[in-house]
Amino acid sequence: MNYALLVQGAPYSQQAAHSALRFAHALIARGHTLGTIFFYHDGVYNASRLATPPQDEPHLVEAWRRLHEDHGTSLLVCIAAALRRGIIDEREARRHGKAGYAVESPFELTGLGQLLDVHSNHDRLVTFSP
Amino acid sequence: MLLHILNRSPASSRVPLDTLRAMGDNDWLLLIEDGVYGAVGPLADEFTSIQGRVFALKEDLVSRGLENRHDATIELVDMDGFVALTEQATQTVSWY
Amino acid sequence: MSDTTDNSMLVVLRHAPHGSSWLREGLDVALVGAALGKKVHLLFLGDGVLALATGQQHGPLGQKGTHPTLDMLEMYDIDMILVDGKALTQRGLTADDLQLPVSLIDDATLPEIFARHSSIYNF
């Protein structure tokens, strides 16, 4: 089956993102496809390339990136939820005159409508919330 | 059949009550994260009305030191079992 | 509820206004769905019923609140507004205290509502 995950919790604040990552690895191990992860609400913090956890803690941003590299999983971030939380990419930074940016490929800022498309073109959508 | 996924303890939240109200007679409930506190008696009594359809995520019990203290009526699943439950359900609904 | 079809989406709103962004971000999903031409049904459950209470205002810092959005639902053709009757009673409210006309749902009907929608968003 083709799975999608909706992640709504910030990493290191609540368990939601960690649970989602565990579930992601488990579904792939069972032979399923993880087509898309959509980050919404505080889940958008999972897309920050600036996250710098201590070395003895799991690095969630890296783990999401690796899912994309190893399994082709799309990493979609709701742009409206992200911008107001300071999670912007280079293009938005330029547009709003900001010096830095937090989001880079393979994470993509996208409209909320994508979540509905994801729900309809994947077999399962499983939500992980704080 | 819907799989309801709950991450709140009945001791700290009213969300489990709404979850139970929304569940159909054939729906299943999976307790994860802080939801697994509800797998340990006497809190597990909250789920007697759906006995036989309640699961708890083993790794979340283990990390909380509760692996051997869960109620016998609640079935433990590992992450692989969690995925299997989502395969069997037509849809999942997460409660938080 | 005879027009309830399998492919309509159900957005469940379980959070009160102002205290968190769950209500607003859940409503955003409903509005986007409607804008994309999907049939959207709203279910206000638990604390979510407080979203409909009359007399809400902007926050002291100019936080918008969600009550103006609810007034726009009709414009988006979102006309199936289901409300948890028990939650309303628990909070000392009746349908007369709400800013919109709604359909009250009893406990026996709740599971049916979840069962008959093929895409559920629970906020």
TrEMBL record, chain A:
Lineage, highest ranks first: Bacteria, Pseudomonadati, Pseudomonadota, Gammaproteobacteria, Oceanospirillales
Localisation: Cytoplasm
Keywords, sorted A to Z: Cytoplasm, Transferase
EC number, as in UniProt: 2.8.1.-
Classification via PANTHER family: PROTEIN YCHN (PTHR34874), SULFURTRANSFERASE TUSD (PTHR34874:SF3)
NCBIfam families to which the protein is assigned, alphabetical: PRK00207.1, sulf_tusD_dsrE
Protein species of origin: Modicisalibacter luteus
Protein name per Swiss-Prot or TrEMBL: Sulfurtransferase complex subunit TusD
Top-rank taxon, per record: Bacteria
GO MF assignments: transferase activity
InterPro entries membership: DsrEFH-like, Sulphur_relay_DsrE/F-like, Sulphur_relay_TusD/DsrE
Similarity annotation: Belongs to the DsrE/TusD family.
From TrEMBL, chain B:
Pfam family, one: DsrH
Name of the protein in its database record: Sulfurtransferase complex subunit TusB
Species for this entry: Modicisalibacter luteus
TrEMBL record, chain C:
A Pfam family per the record: DsrE
Record-linked InterPro entries: DsrEFH-like, Sulphur_relay_DsrE/F-like, Sulphur_relay_TusC/DsrF
Family: Belongs to the DsrF/TusC family.
Protein name from the UniProt record: Sulfurtransferase complex subunit TusC
Taxonomic placement: Bacteria, Pseudomonadati, Pseudomonadota, Gammaproteobacteria, Oceanospirillales
